Amino acid sequence: MRPGYLCPGLFSTKKEWRMTRILLIPGLICDAHVWQATLCTLEDRDVAVADVTHQPSITAMAEDLLARHTGDLVVIGHSMGGRVAMEMARIAPARVQGMALLNTGMAPLGAGELPKREAMIAFCHNEGMAGLAEKWLPGMMADGIAPDPQVMNGLRAMVQRMTPEIHERQIRALIGRPDASLSMPAYKGALLLMTGRQDIWSPIGPHEDIARLCPQARLEIIEEAGHFAPVEQPASVALLLAAWVAETASIQQENAT
Q1: Ramachandran class of 82: left when φ > 0, alpha when ψ lies in -120 to 50, beta otherwise
Q2: Burial of 122 (0-12, 13-18, 19+ CB in 10 A)
Q3: If you ran DSSP here, which 8-state letter would residue 184 be given?
Q4: Alpha helix locations (H) across the chain?
Q5: pLDDT tens-digit series, residues 58-105
Q6: Residue 50 backbone phi and psi in degrees, to 5
């Protein structure tokens, strides 16, 4: 089921837990398009989509979001957004009541990664966002599965809403990203991990690494999905997130009584 076919009210998750904001954090050169289906399932809750297009580092993104969105938070991050979510939990662990990490990882810059990142920055400045979309997006789709044309069209349009300057700023934030493995063992809140079975960019292994550090974590594997699982399999991802949010809310309410 594609995002366009998800209707308001189709999946009702209405609970009393309205005071905790759910913050959806997009990944590299992504926006609310990635969260269309999730927004629909969570329509009865206090939900916001983060803006991470102007901050120069992962830490600055986390600090800015914590300042803009006060009070307790449930943070749901995709790809780069997952790294921002982990940094938010490091900075303000008492405020992050739950965290869902999709298609992400916790490791710092890897060997041989820097020249590849720099090459993508140069390519984007030379070829523009349309050229970047054609080069970058196919490798983000489920490996070995022909991508849905509607999905690809939506992702191309999203990428072209960004600029080479935003792309470079976010890439440089990723180059300097923190090593989240140092902070994740201290996180004790609710934790959902999710990735696509066919994600070759952020495969299952890095999510299992996070789960080993956080015994409370639950790992869900989305079939026939790559790095853009929330868009490739929107209904599956949205339903899992809605159920997890409802479960986390219930636990928080029980603990408060």
Answers
A1: alpha
A2: exposed
A3: G
A4: 36-41, 58-68, 80-91, 113-136, 149-159, 164-175, 204-213, 229-232, 234-256
A5: 999 999 999 999 999 999 999 999 999 999 999 999 999 999 999 999
A6: -75, 150
